Amino acid sequence: MAGLGPLVRAAALLPLLACGAAGAAITLHDDTGTALTLARPAERIVTLMPSLTETVCELQACERLVGVDRHSDWPAAVRGLPRLGGLEDTQVERIAVLRPDLVLAPRSSRALPRLRALGLPVLALEPQDAAGTARVIDTVAAALGREAAGVQLRQRLRERLLAAAARVPPGWRGRALYVEVASTPYAAGEASFIGETLRALGLANIVPASMGPFPQLNPEFVLRAQPALVVLPHAWAAGLPQRPGWQRLQAVAAGRVCALAADPWNALVRPGPRAAEAAEALVDCLVAQPPPAP
């Protein structure tokens, strides 16, 4: 693999050399403060984070993707693309051989220095909340030469979130939920982007912001809090009654469990352009069952 060095450097430079002066250059700044100038809108894109893949596709540019990380699974069109590893094992040489004119990578990726050392055009973007998602949408839209599509996408997200909030049954408004993101258990707190989604729907969270975005909880904390609804992946739901002490959790005893299938669950736990889809799935759960008595 070491012998590939000169070849991959040359391959990485080809898209940039071919850009020419077809239009005005595009200069963008990523989440690390690094500036990147593209001679023209990107046409061959590699994404190394699911929410970045989803952003490109929501901007109606899925056909420009030439490779994705191993966890990108939405929409279905991306599942046949080359899989290029994850945060810890990004396949940098394979990326270079694909000759992308833009690599969208999370700022936490260990591969950033190597990608840039090869001369690959990289934007390090990693949304952590609603404001970050809006910023990433605008940045990616500019890189695609589709600024108007970015504005439209953000507007659609806002409208869908407002429509979802309007569907929350009155008896559920203000009720506190428990969202379990790992069965240890780890929960999504008020300070997380999932907490933002709950607030947008007029719902509360049993985990205060002071505990951090995704704290590990003592199971007794959940039992004392007695959430009105438990939200978790469908695969974990069957085991809830078998957890020690959880027979005393009123939501479980009453069947007030929102067990999300894989696709809406991924939309919920990935900060990105599918936040409205996640909100709609949560509201569907609320509509489907009566709230606890006041």
Q: How would you characterize the overall build of this protein?
A:
The chain has 294 residues and is of the alpha/beta class. It has 2 domains: 144 residues, Nitrogenase molybdenum iron protein domain (Rossmann fold); 119 residues, Nitrogenase molybdenum iron protein domain (Rossmann fold), CATH 3.40.50.1980. The protein is 39% helix and 14% strand. Strands 7, 8, 9, 10 and 11 form a 5-stranded mixed beta sheet that branches. The protein has a 4-stranded parallel beta sheet with strand order 4-3-5-6. A hairpin with a 5-residue loop joins β1 and β2. The N terminus is likely disordered.
Secondary structure topology:
Blueprint: H1 5-17, E1 26-29, E2 35-38, E3 45-47, H2 50-58, E4 65-68, H3 92-97, E5 102-105, H4 112-117, E6 122-124, H5 130-144, H6 147-167, E7 176-182, E8 186-187, H7 193-200, E9 204-205, H8 219-225, E10 229-233, H9 234-237, H10 250-253, E11 257-260, H11 262-269, H12 275-287
Parallel strand pairs: 3-4, 3-5, 5-6, 7-9, 7-10, 10-11
Antiparallel strand pairs: 1-2, 7-8
Précis, in short:
With 294 residues, the protein is an alpha/beta fold.
Helix content: 25-40%
Chain-averaged pLDDT: 92
* Beta-strand segment tally: 11
CATH topology of the largest domain: Rossmann fold
Distance from N terminus to C terminus (CA atoms, Å) equals 65 Å
**Low-confidence runs (pLDDT<50, min 5 residues)?**
1-22
Alpha-carbon Rg, integer? 21 Å
Features of the shown structure:
alpha/beta, 2 domains, 294 residues, single chain, elongated, 11 strands, four-stranded parallel sheet, Rossmann fold, five-stranded mixed sheet, 12 helices
